[in-house]
């Protein structure tokens, strides 16, 4: 247990510094590429910090544990909004740009609804995965083309493109390694405490893979970089619901259990709608709204009840497969 706690601390340290470096790297890249920093945040922070979700979900499917793969995506998306963004909003109210919310918020809602539609027949097939991934690629292309209409200025010191790439790369590496170390330690502790596979997948793994977003967003909140937070959270959720789930379904079609179809996926869609509504009220996410979001996060797990956390038996296979990678 002491070794697990030490690894947990190490993972948190890597996540903290990785988040700080990522904010620096994203701002430097935006300045050097002369594009709005929210665009770079959407791609680098959104996809980069979704790497742990991608790793866990693909390995879960290789180990024939679809509930872990789906729980990781759905649980992470809920946590990104009601936990990560809410915590950032408590640190400093988030000013919302109407254009960002209209485009990136719409994309996030579309990806959540797309996941729900794909799950309606009880399985996310390879065809569903292809549609989700293509939709994401098309959106990225359109988003990039429209970036010329936005203010490209970013207040950072001049730096070389090579240094910006190095800083961003080091940040993503620290975040990925930190998340992996943290997840392994957290799962080990959870098993020692006798927690079930369902609870681990939807809470420990989901929150663990959301820690990169949390570290980056808290750092951005301390620096009053609202656009970075929005780009990172919205981007991460879009990537999770399209690229991450699509990659997992390409390994093997993902069956949708009754708990996911009847509760967790609707809860994810509901969290998405609530978050967008709060961001639209005065185009600011206030501390009061952030507090309500945190309360909703707790209520969701309270409403799920013990039945959603029935022990499975496939989780150990996922971790054994991951340890061999």
Characterize the structure shown.
It is a single chain. The chain is built from twelve helices and four strands, in the order ααααβαβααααβαβαα. Strands 1-4 form a two-stranded antiparallel sheet. Strands 2-3 form a two-stranded antiparallel sheet. Mean pLDDT is 78; it is low at 149-156 and 310-325. The protein is mostly helical. It is globular. The protein has helices at residues 2-33, 37-48, 51-62, 66-91, 98-118, 126-146, 161-192, 197-222, 226-251, 258-280, 287-304, 315-323, and strands at 94-95, 123-124, 254-255, 284-285.
Please supply descriptive tags for the structure shown above:
disordered C terminus; single chain; 325 residues; globular; mainly alpha; two-stranded antiparallel ribbon; 12 helices; two-stranded antiparallel sheet; 79% helix
- The 3D shape can be described as globular
Give the N-to-C terminal Cα separation: 24 Å
Strand order in the largest sheet:
1-4
Largest sheet: 2 strands, antiparallel
- Following the backbone from N to C, one meets helices and strands in this order, namely HHHHEHEHHHHEHEHH
Low-confidence stretches: 149-156, 310-325
- The count of helical stretches stands at 12
Which structural class best describes the helix and strand composition? mainly alpha
DSSP strand count: 4
Integer-rounded radius of gyration: 18 Å
Q: Strand-residue fraction?
A: under 5%
Percent helix among the residues?
over 70%
Q: Helices, strands, pairings?
A:
Elements: H1 2-33, H2 37-48, H3 51-62, H4 66-91, E1 94-95, H5 98-118, E2 123-124, H6 126-146, H7 161-192, H8 197-222, H9 226-251, E3 254-255, H10 258-280, E4 284-285, H11 287-304, H12 315-323
Helix pairs in contact: 1-2, 1-7, 1-8, 2-9, 3-4, 3-8, 3-9, 3-12, 4-8, 4-9, 4-10, 4-11, 5-6, 5-9, 5-10, 6-9, 7-8, 8-9, 10-11
């Amino acid at each position: 247990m002491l070794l697990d706690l030490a690894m947990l601390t190490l993972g948190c340290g890597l996540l903290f510094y990785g988040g700080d470096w990522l904010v620096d790297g994203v701002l430097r890249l935006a300045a050097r590429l002369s594009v709005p920093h929210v665009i770079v945040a959407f791609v680098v922070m959104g996809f980069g910090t979704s790497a742990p979700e991608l790793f866990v979900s693909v390995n879960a499917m290789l180990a024939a544990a679809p509930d872990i793969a789906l729980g990781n995506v759905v649980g992470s998306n809920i946590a990104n909004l009601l936990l990560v963004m809410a915590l950032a909003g408590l640190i400093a109210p988030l000013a919302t740009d109407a254009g960002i919310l209209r485009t990136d918020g719409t994309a996030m809602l579309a990806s959540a609804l797309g996941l729900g539609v794909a799950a309606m027949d009880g399985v996310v097939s390879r065809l569903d995965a292809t549609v989700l991934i293509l939709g994401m690629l098309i959106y990225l292309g359109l988003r990039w083309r429209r970036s010329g209409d936005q203010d490209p200025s970013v207040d950072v010191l001049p730096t070389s493109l090579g240094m910006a790439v190095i800083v961003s790369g080091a940040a993503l590496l620290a975040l990925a390694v930190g998340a992996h170390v943290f997840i392994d330690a957290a799962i080990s502790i959870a098993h020692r405490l006798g927690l079930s596979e369902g609870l681990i997948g939807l809470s420990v793994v989901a929150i663990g893979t959301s820690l990169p977003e949390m570290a980056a967003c808290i750092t951005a909140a301390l620096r009053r970089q609202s656009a970075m937070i929005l780009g990172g959270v919205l981007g991460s959720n879009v990537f999770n619901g399209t690229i991450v789930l699509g990659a997992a379904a390409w390994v093997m079609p993902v069956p949708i259990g009754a708990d996911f179809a009847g509760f967790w996926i609707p809860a994810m869609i509901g969290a998405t709608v609530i978050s967008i509504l709060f961001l639209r009220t005065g185009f600011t996410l206030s501390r009061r709204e952030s507090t309500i979001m945190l309360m909703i996060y707790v209520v969701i797990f309270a409403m799920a009840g013990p039945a959603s956390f029935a022990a499975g038996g496939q989780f150990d296979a996922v971790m054994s497969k991951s340890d061999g990678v």
